[in-house]
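Listing S7. Sequence submitted for prediction.
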Amino acid sequence: MTEMQSKTDAALAAIADAGDLDALEELRLAALGKKGWVSAALKTLGQMSPEERTTAAPAIQAVRAQISDALAAKKAELESAELEARLATETLDLTLPAPQSARGSVHPVSQVMDELAEIFADMGFAVATGPEIEDDWYNFTALNMPESHPARAMHDTFYFPDTAPKGGKMLLRTHTSPVQIRTMMAEGAPLRIIAPGRVYRSDSDATHTPMFHQVEGLVIDKGIHLGHLKWTLETFLKAFFETDDIVLRLRPSYFPFTEPSVEVDVGFAIENGKRVLGGSGDAPGHGWMELLGSGMVNARVIEFAGLDPDEWQGFAWGLGVDRLAMLKYGMDDLRAFFDGDVRWLQHYGFSGLDQPTLSGGVGVAP
């Protein structure tokens, strides 16, 4: 035990002289670690006779306790000295106001609205707005939708009992297209606008809600053709989804307010169970997904807006803002957008300080 006492005295002296916490930790490992000399001494107890163990065990345990107490005392001393040094050098102005902590988050729909405005502003488009309570002339008639059109039926549109100033019916707008008519009548041509906002239709399931968000675009100018439309949509989608690998397919379709009309499909693939836009839909492992409707503005619509269709041409498109958010940020149920679940918003929401910019990127979640 004389050797044990010598090691103990040396260890206690080294602990007392330790200059910092790192040196103290090395001394702890040397004595009490798995390969430390105190731990090694404890292991030798198993090789002793019961009589020897009765004498040696208390002495080794006493050494272990003595070194543990010395380490704890020295650690407290060093930590106290470190704190005193920090307090002596650091200053705090108690007269300054407390920093504001971020509260709440930006809804994904609001975030995508901001992204749309940023992208199209860079392309020369202005944002136009209009009333959500419309009359059927702006919502249907001026858009070349006849009285027999299914969208005019009560099972698809929310009507009010009020009578419109022009003698028609008042309703909740079913699309933001009336904004196009109002803007053409107010500002004339040429024109480049997007019209984002809330719209209302009598429909509800996992991919439809009675109220949802839509963005429509309109370009009125001279010499406009479908090539301009395709370039505009490609440029927008590449910026929004932050990839250059966007391939579009235009299919002939029919809309009363455009002629010719085209459905726009985009190529996609399934990666890790999620739909990811990019590549040709004809490529192996890929497919085509219908994304939006578009076309050249019908001559009758241009006439209704008070413009000469022989002089002015244009194109228009429309798509769901909520669907864009679902595709980009991986949401799978449109109804969750309107449930008001704080947990959902904390997961999918954005910081109010993260403003999207084309130079810094758009839509980066916090």
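Caption to Listing S7: primary sequence and predicted structure tokens for the chain studied. The longest strand covers residues 258-271. The CA atoms of residues 150 and 162 lie 21 Å apart.
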